[in-house]
Specification:
With 323 residues, the chain is an all-beta fold. Helix content is 1%, strand content 55%. The protein has a twelve-stranded antiparallel barrel with strand order 1-2-3-7-8-9-10-11-12-13-14-15. The protein is globular, with a radius of gyration of 20 Å.
């Protein structure tokens, strides 16, 4: 039995403003993409049916900021941290309808988030209360399956439903529309489809932030993993990974100051860690799955470097009888 693959969520990260960093480096503006929310089966669409992802918890924490050369900033060495938390409730519909030979699927993920940022050497100490985050929808998700590989492709849209005001330190949204094209595959190394490797790419573009001429640069994210399935595919364990790169420069709508021997570098970061999926079942009924992922980040440039934790319970509707 193929396990239910979890879909992308619209977890939000607190944007580090220019004024919060020392002159030796500038921070990068955040996009909507949530690193690590796809894993070992990133290129696999769930079997036809309805699925509920509830709850889904996403946590990102960091106490390091790396400049464009990958060096840790002195301000962070003096103490500081950042936390972002999100709780998601998602619905996934995978249909029997074919588009270009692939099954059509629709995904929607509203969420609640709160964030905290503290860098004592810079005087920054902010925290937001819990509230509605930006909404994520996949109006197009297509999936194909062959004997030794799965494929997905589609379009995702982030809507600015979270609270946002330009210059505010209590935003729960990013104040902009974002769009991502994605495509990926899960390859199986054996006929029984128990050993697999997955890779899925997401290319994210952005509209202007509300009330400003600021536009976040394009972002490329690659996610996947290598793993082994058990119990006819209901359980799995392995290593998940992600990489993220800012492809184009942020546009602030104004001419930026030029500092000696410095420039605004485009951010990049990598994450790797364990992933585990176990079934939630009795002898007669499969009710759902519990999926856990943890990532340690490395190789950060012009961005934070920390840890990511994702925990999700997902349920096919109706439950699946085993006898």
């Amino acid at each position: 039995m193929k396990k239910c693959k979890l879909s992308r969520v619209s977890t939000l990260f607190l944007i580090l403003a220019f004024g919060a960093m020392p002159d030796s480096a500038f921070s990068q503006l955040s996009g909507h993409n949530s690193k690590g929310d796809y894993g070992m089966f990133s290129g696999t669409q769930s079997p036809p049916g309805w699925y509920l992802a509830a709850p889904m918890y996403y946590r990102y924490s960091a106490d390091e900021f790396r400049d464009r050369n990958g060096d840790r900033l002195p301000a962070v060495e003096g103490g500081g941290s950042m936390e972002a938390n999100a709780w998601l409730l998602g619905a996934i519909w995978v249909s029997e309808y074919k588009v270009l030979g692939g099954n059509y699927s629709f995904v929607i993920f509203p969420g609640v988030t709160n964030n905290a940022l503290g860098f004592p050497p810079t005087g920054v100490d902010t925290r937001t209360s819990s509230g509605l985050a930006d909404l994520y929808v996949q109006p197009i998700n297509l999936g194909w399956t062959t004997s030794r590989a799965d494929f997905i492709a589609g379009l995702g849209v982030f809507a600015p439903t979270g609270e946002y005001e330009a210059g505010s330190d209590s935003n729960r949204g990013l104040g902009m529309w974002s769009y991502e094209l994605f495509a990926g595959t899960t390859l199986y190394f054996d006929e029984a489809r128990t050993w697999s490797f997955a890779a899925t790419a997401f290319y994210e573009t952005h509209g202007k932030k509300d009330g400003t001429d600021i536009r976040v640069g394009d972002i490329l994210t690659l996610e996947g993993g290598l793993g082994k399935s058990f119990m006819q595919g209901a359980a799995s364990a392995g290593i998940a990974y992600y990489g993220q790169w800012k492809i184009t420069e942020d546009d602030f709508g104004v001419e930026l100051p030029t500092l000696p021997n410095r420039r605004l570098g485009k951010h990049q970061v990598y994450g790797i860690g364990p992933e585990l999926t176990v079934p939630l079942a009795t002898k007669k009924t499969l009710y759902g799955f519990l999926n856990l992922r943890y990532f340690w980040e490395t190789g950060a440039r012009s961005t934070l470097q920390g840890n990511t934790f994702v925990a999700t319970m997902s349920f096919p509707i109706p439950s699946i009888p085993l006898q």
